[in-house]
Amino acid sequence: MRITAGDVAALERGVALLGSGGGGDTVTAAVLLRQLLSDGRALVVSSTAELAPSARVVPIGVVGATAAFTEKLPGGGEFAAAVAAVERWTGERADALMSIEIGGLNGLLPLVVADQLGLGYVDADLSGRGLPRLDQFSVAATGRGVAPAALAEPGGQVVVLAAGSDAVIERGTRAFLAGSGGWAAFALAPIPAGELAGCTVPGTTSGALELGRRVLAVGESPPRDALETALAGSVLARGRVLEVARHLGPGQHGSPGFGRGSVTLADHRDGGLLRLEMENEYLLALRDGTPVASTPDVLSVLDHRTGVPVSCDAIRTGVEVDVVRLAAAPFWTDPRWLPVVRPRAYGIDCDPVGIG
Amino acid sequence: MSLRRVLALPSWAEHVRLLAGAAGLDRPLATVQATLDASHRPAPGELTVVARPVAGTDWQIDALVRRCADAGATGVLLPGTEPLTASRLLADRLAVPLLTTGAPPLDLLVEARLLLAAPEIDRANLLLATHRALGDRLRPPEEVVAVVRRLLRSPVAVLDDRGAPLAGEVTGRVRLDEAVPQRTEVDGGVLLAHPVLLQRPAMWLAAELRGTEAARADVVPPALAVAAGALQRWLLANRLELERDARSRTALLGDLLRLDTEPGADLRRRVADAGWRLGGWHVGLHIGVPAAVDTVARTQEVMRALDVDAVVVEHGDGWTGWVTFDHEPTAERVRSLATRLQAAHRTLRLGAHMGVGRPHPRPEGLAATVAEALDAARLAATRPETGHFLHVDQLGMAQLLLEWTRTDTFEPAARALVAPLRSVPGDLVRTLSAYLDAESSIAETATVLGVHRNTVAARIARIEQLLGVDLSRPDERLALHLASRAVILSDE
């Protein structure tokens, strides 16, 4: 698959939708990508099957506070440093890159990095949506593990978390980010292409592009059924946001937890109250008190006027929005991996809604 | 009970705040339940008290409000929490009262539970008091009424199966055809009634609650049931006594009626014990009733109705009795007695027939007059024109005799006797009857039958020939007279 400048808008919309309210702001990454493709160039994205089984694929992405990413700009060498660090640690050269997370800016930025580093790019990722923690990556869920992982922050520090459980790597990463610039380029040990099928979510870049194209095609403020068709999902509610309440979630191991929040809107159709529970992503939807949708399905909030996804950080009262639900990647409905992304994995005492 | 009522409790009024869902304040409240479990499933009529600390931002509040609405529960009380606007909007939308309190929620729960239990406690207290007051002793309806009236501070009555008061007084009407505990709204109060059942309601216990007492209408029925049980015991014991008594008297009567010699010492002793007299002159009476009438239960009623100094015994299809005179009564006295008995018979309204015998002296006369009364009663059963009442006076005696010719044994014999006359032409049976009625006057017979006297003479000769009798002999005349009359009567 080739990606040209004309695809950037659709791809951006697609990854923003899959961010489920998280994943970070896509604007900067989209600008970089558009610049890269401005002179008619195209990026090649290969499916896992197109690679030699022995080809080494390094998952990369930005971790940490994605808001800080736009405040504290990258120096430009962070990704090269992170990839180099993990290559040096493992003694294996990278042949191609892939994204750790399709949802949000990590759905776009690794494409730019791959081009800059002159490496191939694989149509797969470790999340299939927006996910907040490293220990929720598909490689963690399937038991392959996150370690070793390299972090390079804009101040120049490079750290390799060589060994440890996924929870330890997650904790170490958070501690490092808290003591540095708030975000870092992140690279995992290379995975042989032949093993990707068993531990990653395939086809997500092409899927995000397709999703974005369909959604853009229905235009702004589309009718409800047209939007549902384009999303291959459902509109849970369409209305004005009445309340956004934010509070700190439960912390672990003495460190503060992620910010939590609730968004409530009244559906224009029947006055029904739709409440969204969110952390970094929208996680649970209740309609008049009854859970109607939850992670691992993707819950997104679209600005009703523009159709642009509204992140958990940005949502505020008074906006007219559509709350939509997209089916989870089949990877996450596998009962073996479901526990990693079900509501209880986020501390929400509720069974997954819509998953058997 | 409603949540609004609970909120009026002093501690609730002071410490509990209604956040939303005011439209649901009048939902019925059946129970107050504490929960620590976020996934608690409320029961209908339940006020759910969340007894663990809960953050106001917790989505589980919404889910609980929703489950309350779905289950028909009454509301949710949160401890020291300010829920989100979202939760308040939802409570308003679903009309589920959402409450919060700074006070210990379990203290509030106990107070609400006590209020809810108040009717139960009142009911239990009343029930115990009723049990204690009525005790194990058998009490007649008058005493039961007095006890229940004191306990309920309200008018109470025991009614018979036709709704007439046996004891006490109430103004409301009991629906006698519905053999179940009843509650009827009456002007300014409530009438409660409980049937006293044997096979069917034998009595009703009714209480009329007025004014503030009317508010206890839910509390009183179990106490009435207990009191009705006491009445039932009394009825059963009474009945047992009556039955025993009735059996011994019926046996004694049977022995007397079979008597054909002077009664033995033992029998005389039993008669004296029963308060009966064998000497003097007796006038027997018998009242027969349809099989459905409970004779044992009604003996007292019959004795009251007769209003004469009579012995009355359950016997056969009803009651047999007699009035004893010291000396032979004059015809005038007997007539006056019969008139009074007839009047009593009219007031009984049991669908009864009554017969009265002639005065006879001494024990054997007792059997005779009773036998006459039984016959007369049997005759009266088919005589609506006499009001189903028949007194065996001189006239009645003749009717009685004639009636005997209709008996099962006489009639076939009579038919056999005159059968030869019926097998030939000519109205020979009627001619014979008319001839004997006319005391053997050919002329008068001819007039009665409207035929020539030669015809009568020829027929009589033919009758004598066919039957082989001589109509000048008194015995044969009597036999044929009765036989022809019986056949004619039965053919009519």
UniProtKB/TrEMBL annotation, chain A:
SUPFAM superfamilies: CV3147-like. Residues 166-352 form the S-Me-THD-like C-terminal domain. InterPro entries: S-Me-THD-like_C (IPR048350), S-Me-THD_C_sf (IPR024071), S-Me-THD_N (IPR010318), S-Me-THD_N_sf (IPR027479). Residues 7-161 form the S-Me-THD N-terminal domain. Pfam families: S-Me-THD_C, S-Me-THD_N. This is DUF917 domain-containing protein. It comes from Amycolatopsis mongoliensis.
UniProtKB/TrEMBL annotation, chain B:
Pfam families: GGDEF_2 (PF17853), HTH_30 (PF13556). Residues 428-486 form the PucR C-terminal helix-turn-helix domain. Residues 264-379 form the CdaR GGDEF-like domain. Belongs to the CdaR family. This is Helix-turn-helix domain-containing protein.
